[in-house]
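A quick word before the example. In earlier lectures we treated sequence and structure as two separate objects. From today on, think of them as two lines of the same record. Here is Dihydroxyacetone kinase written that way.
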Amino acid sequence: MAPRQPHKTADADTLTPMPLRYGDDPLLWAAWLYYEEGLTQSDIAEKMGLSRASVNAYLADARTRGIVNIEIAPEKFRALSIAQALRDHFNLQDCLIIPTEGDERPLIARLGAAGAQVLRRFVKSGDTLAVTWGRTVLALAEALDHPGLQDVRVVQATGGTTAKIPWTPEACASRLADALKARSIPISAPAIVTSAEMRAMLMQEPVLAEQLAILAEADRIVMGISSLRPESTIHSSGFLDGGVQHAHYQDAVGSIVGRFIGARGEPVIGPMQERTIGIELEALRRIPQRIAVAGGVDKVPAILAALRGGYVNVLVTDVVTGRGILTAEGYRDTPRRSPPADPAPLTARSHVKKLINAPQDAVDEALRGALLAHEDLIAALPDSPRAIRALDGPRPGKVGLVIGGGAGHEPGFWGYVGRGLADAAAVGNLFASPPPGPILAATQAVQGGAGVLYIYGNFSGDVMNFDMAAEIANAEGIPVRSVVTTDDIASSPIESRAARRGVAGNVFIFKIAGAAADRMMPLEACEAVVRRANARTYTMGLALEPGSLLETRRPSFDLGPHDMELGVGVHGEPGVVRQKLASADESADLLLDRILTEMAPQEGDRVAVLVNSLGSTPAMELYIILRRVRQRLKARGIIVHKSLVGPYYTSLDMAGVSLSLLHLDAELATLLDAPCRSAALTLP
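And the structure line, produced from the sequence above:
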């Protein structure tokens, strides 16, 4: 359906080019300027290039359409305020924010459509447009249809990549050229060549030199931004393998135009630098307009680095990613200009009291306390106090099970070390991966000749450090397999499940893995059943109050007294949706409905349920949630095989709850029921 046209007046108005964040909606633009920025109608008329009568009509039409009802609709306000904050903070030319949750299309497709909207706005006849590659860039090209231009050139920003993927530089450039009826100019060389000498030889070829000269004339570039996760574009395109990343690119957080950047946007130089054919980072900065289209919470560090480095001046992303970027920069949500009066205003929590000594000692002191409390179950390795082993469990001929991650999730991870569960755990600093040393020490301590299985959440530091430990262990003759947990359905759309975070569903996965290993199943069989458990585990969380870090003793994000966050992370990250505080039953339904939509269980199927406190939520409230979840599942004919309720996997002192469901089959149910004994979970 075509969008409704704004009210027409008798005046011959010529609308000033509209900032991207208003999404081609002049009514929204006018409403924002009037209600949020406090401009007069005359000021707005001058700013928008309209008559005052037109502005008056726009504001009236905005009220009629429901854009404004005393204040701008909250979801529109949030997107606009985030876009404006990003624009101001990073000195961008413009910024477009789309909802993280939208229609049935995946986020990548919706980002591509938004990027196409931006490109239609900016690209002009005679332009030279450079383009990178990736899933989102190809989605943009497929969504674009703008044939009314002349003399446009579309040039690849890098050489070619592996043809095993559909979103190659060649495919993205040719599809974009087709949409613009433009001339497509390839880079007639691989993006990565075998040596620096080969690159030097190719750069002397006249054809390649001519193509690179055209690239240097680019007026604009449209590009994606890649994280460095194993399933990311930079990996799937053949730029990196694990060994190269670990050896040379540990300081990199992302990749842009095939180049690697650190957290502050600084280039990270490694052996790929002299083997890459394509635009250099300094040359990228010289392109007048640099349009980046990227989203998803897993990409927040990479996008933030690109913004800090000045490689982007037009950004297209989604609400949750935008908020994550701003939160990392210390930004707090913009208050409304004229919030409705609260008859009983509550004082916002600005400083949190904690029973700690020095913040830097808290993790080690808590761990020593846990070891004393459970000295009949666990002990630290003598030369590696962050490596915790089970006193009962590891034995010859049994697969060793090593888990781990950052502190702050107590009783994770040491709480799941014991007979029938993990044989050892490596514990990092607060919300930070353990380094390879404790992981390797745990591996050596529990290996019984049948190999070792690693299980850890899908966070970049954990992936890197566990992989490094696995490489060393394999070199020492200890076979290691790894399963990365990905149960957090809020952290990435279903089509990119491999990018999701591993959160409270870890409890079920640790239990399945421990039982499989305890039954003396071989390493390959343990890995297979744990992968199946991970694929059938779904988690969604909500927060009533944010957590607070030990050093700052301040909330990790702002949340009003009448609001709650859906889809929060376990490292204090804000959620994907903010809404008014709901009742326990309504909150349980919000979590359960998202899980069931993706799980799609049939009547008669069995599930295990975990209602988990994120730190500060008392047992009474957890049981109220469980009661509703059980009621809903019974009504659908779904059998609850086992229920767990309590603080199993926390986020410091966050007030909130997460709901995890494991979709059982016969083998998973048997393994879940097997006896175990640990500090956090004991089954007879």
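Notice the following. The longest strand covers residues 537-545. We will return to this example when we discuss secondary structure assignment.
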